[in-house]
Amino acid sequence: MAHSISSPVHSELLIKKSRFIGCVQPVAGRPAAQAIVAGLRLQHPGAAHVCWALLAGGQSAAVDDGEPSGTAGRPMLDVLRHQGLEGVLATVVRYYGGVKLGAGGLVRAYTDCVAQAVKQADKVPIVRMRALHCAVPYALEGLVRREIAAAGGRLDDIRHGEAVAFDITLADAVADAFVARLGEACQGRIVWEAPE
């Protein structure tokens, strides 16, 4: 199961006079990640590099920002993948200290900076959700409400017209069983609508 993190976590390393300031934080996707990176560039105008890695919603990115190819973004992305994280952005701001670290030293520095931040993170499981829409006769409203609660679902909206229409969100892992159980309990008097 993939995990995200509940809040941003930070780390800082000083290696041969170079300062590495790391952050791993939850993020929704590439536009949000790019906005955060742009903000870091404004906050750290004297930094030599603002490297980043993203895993969010099937999107991934590994940006070296002027460091030798494969020495910053890719190692940072590897840490996120190894930790089974999703929906996260890792950034490392580097202030160059005047001493070259070499390719191996850079890989270790960027890897360690992100890994130290992730160690402090409060990991939270990502629960995939599914939206369901159905309508039942008035006499079955209470039954449907009880089944939603029993499945740990959320009642997003309810409309009373010719029938009672429900908009429900629940964990994808229990959705099929919920639909089957509700269909059986309602004895065919439930109409499932396609999500919009």
Helix content: 25-40%
Give the neighbour order of strands across the main sheet. 2-3-6-4-5
Shape descriptor: elongated
Report the count of strand segments: 11
Average pLDDT number: 91
**What profile does the largest beta sheet have?**
5 strands, antiparallel
- Listing every helix as H and every strand as E from the N terminus to the C terminus, the arrangement reads EEEHEEHEHEEHEEHE
User: What proportion strand?
Assistant: 35-45%
Rg, Å, rounded: 24 Å
Q: What is the rounded distance between the termini?
A: 28 Å
Count of helices?
5
Structural class: alpha+beta
Low-pLDDT ranges: none
Describe the structure.
The protein has 196 residues and is α+β, with helices and mostly antiparallel strands. The protein is 34% helix and 35% strand. It has 5 helices and 11 strands. Strands 2-3-6-4-5 form a 5-stranded antiparallel sheet, with helices on both faces. A hairpin with a 2-residue loop joins strand 4 and strand 5. Helix 2 (73-82) runs parallel beside helix 3 (102-119). The two termini are 28 Å apart.
